Amino acid sequence: MRCRWRLLSLLIVSAGSLLFGAAGDGAWLRNVPAEQRQRANPFAEDSRAVTSGEKLFEENCSKCHGKNAEGRGRRPALRSARVRDASPGELEWLLTNGSLRNGMPSWARLPEQQRWQLVAFLKSLQ
Question: Under a CB-based contact definition with an 8 Å cutoff, are residues 89 and 36 in contact?
Answer without folding.
Answer: yes
